[in-house]
């Protein structure tokens, strides 16, 4: 899969030069997870584009020859300057290696045996060998990439299945939960709230199933307002009452589970049932499952 002109494979996979093959595989797998189309339904076009770019970058960097050529091109100016500075000092060594290379090529042309005694390959044999090596290498890269993509697909499917299960549990939990609000106030100048007063005030936030008897201690009062199961009564904790009546304060004993909003200082529930996931909003739930692996 060719790399698009101007694309930087290191940047696409968030890698640095000199990275290992294992690091390339790990980076590619991470990009596949991040941009998998099934995880980006609201941005599918962009996700598919990034998914393909990651494949192209993986194929390119995993090919050592292409990668070496790319790295060499990136550093051509620096390498040229270094070579110039070293040229005179290394002249004798370079000349010797040049002679050895010329002798090697001459021997190949004249059909002489290599130093190990094996028969020299013809041009056709060399071309065939190179073609075979290239094909085997491409197959190796493709096999590795397929395995990584298979792992990613399996992980995404597992997350989707977990998401579905938790959504169902979330819905059931919402339907059975009866929000309970602890309401407190201090009587002043003989002014007090009756049960009907409390019902009138808090029924604005949803249907009420029960209001407890008042708990009194000197001039302080408490009542528990229980809403019907599944009621989204958020906001009730902010109610302060009706002037000139005493000011009300409220906090959740059992908060609603319908939205992402949470009470600032909720009273800890005594039920002890359910996981943290069950009390999350669907938005938080999705972020936890799809982004927390």
TrEMBL record:
Location of the J domain: 8-74
Pfam entry (one): DnaJ
Keywords: Chaperone, Cytoplasm, Nucleus
Record's subcellular location: Cytoplasm; Nucleus
Stretches for region Disordered: 105-137
Annotated GO biological process: spliceosomal complex disassembly
Stretches with biased composition (Basic and acidic residues): 105-115
InterPro entries (alphabetical): DnaJ_domain (IPR001623), DnaJ_domain_CS (IPR018253), DNAJC17_RRM (IPR034254), J_dom_sf (IPR036869), Nucleotide-bd_a/b_plait_sf (IPR012677), Pre-mRNA-splicing_ERAD (IPR052094)
GO CC, any one term: cytoplasm
Protein name: J domain-containing protein
């Amino acid at each position: 899969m060719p790399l698009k002109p101007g694309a930087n494979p290191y940047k696409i996979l968030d890698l640095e030069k000199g990275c290992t093959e294992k690091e390339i595989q790990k980076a590619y797998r991470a990009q596949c997870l991040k941009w998998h189309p099934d995880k980006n339904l609201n941005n599918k076009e962009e996700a598919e584009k990034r998914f393909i770019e990651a494949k192209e970058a993986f194929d390119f960097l995993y090919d050592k020859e292409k990668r070496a050529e790319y790295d060499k091109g990136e550093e051509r100016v620096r390498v040229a300057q270094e070579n110039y500075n070293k040229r005179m000092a290394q002249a004798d060594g370079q000349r010797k290696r040049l002679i050895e290379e010329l002798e090697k090529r001459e021997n190949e042309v004249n059909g002489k045996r290599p130093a190990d005694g094996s028969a020299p390959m013809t041009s056709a044999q060399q071309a065939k060998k190179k073609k075979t090596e290239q094909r085997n290498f491409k197959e190796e890269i493709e096999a590795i990439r397929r395995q990584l993509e298979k792992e990613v697909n399996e992980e995404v499917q597992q997350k989707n299945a977990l998401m579905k299960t938790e959504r169902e549990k979330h819905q059931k939990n919402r339907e059975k939960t009866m929000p309970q609000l602890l309401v407190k106030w201090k009587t002043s100048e003989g002014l007090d709230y009756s049960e009907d007063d409390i019902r009138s005030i808090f029924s604005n936030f949803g249907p009420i199933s029960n209001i407890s008897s008042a708990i009194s201690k000197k001039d302080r009062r408490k009542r528990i307002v229980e809403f019907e199961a599944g009621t989204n009564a958020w906001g009730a904790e902010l109610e302060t009452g009706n002037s000139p009546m005493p000011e009300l304060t409220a906090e959740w004993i059992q908060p609603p589970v319908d939205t992402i909003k949470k009470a600032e200082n909720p009273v800890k529930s005594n039920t002890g049932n359910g996981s943290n996931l069950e009390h999350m909003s669907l938005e938080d739930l999705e972020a936890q499952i799809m982004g927390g692996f």
